[in-house]
Request: fold
Amino acid sequence: MLNILQDKIEAINSELAYRIKLWQYTPNLPTLDPGDRLIVNTLKREGIYITTLADLGLATTPQLLEAANSLLPNIGTDNYTASAQNPPEIYTVTHLPNFYNWGKETRLLNILENYIGLPVAYHGVQVRKDFVNTSQFSTMLWHRDSEDRRIIKIIIYLNDVEEKNGPFEYVPASFTSISNLNFYRLYSKIYNTGIDDETLDKIVPKSAWKSCPGKAGTVIIVDTQRLLHHGTVRTQERSTLFFVYTANPPKRPGLCTQYWDDTYPKPETLQKI
Reply:
């Protein structure tokens, strides 16, 4: 009982210290133009903002696409069957400048700093190919990420993504916020194993879920701690880039090392890009 009480006190003190840091850092947040302020305001209101590489117009986009297009033919070349579970192929490419430099563009970091509210840690970038699957497992189960209090993942579609490709899908924040009864009904399920469509539909109806199909070059900027989300079951492949950001330092730094360490392969062929 005493340990539980101490844990709760520590959690309260940690949250209070975090709130104080947010307040103290507010005067230091970068100035934004109206268009970028719109992105931040939308993220604060909805937890997600969807745009395109063309509309963002970052200077290093051509180099990013050149690197991605050079890499993709080397991914997913094995013969995959339409079995129940085909795990994705994930490659860490944080060490490759043409990938990494896009994610550290000053304008982009300024947008994210205004949303996160503190200095930003840019953890890295991964390229991912998801294959045909007939059942939910791993990140196809509904979940929230837990690296930090606010986690921004920027997902870029490298091919056209329709329903058959398994687009990113989320539940609007209003359905799962702490002020909503659903939060308490979902909490233990989310943080233990994730939940499947059937279970979620009993708590938040499927009609409320938001799917995010899009053309190649679609950019999804999303707080994956705030929003309940998953990748959907697919009948055709999907290729994406994932860029990951938290406050510096994050609440759980040990969960962030996978974006630059050897958790996922960095094949020798990638070094040539």
In short: The mean pLDDT is 90. The chain is about 30% helix and 20% strand.
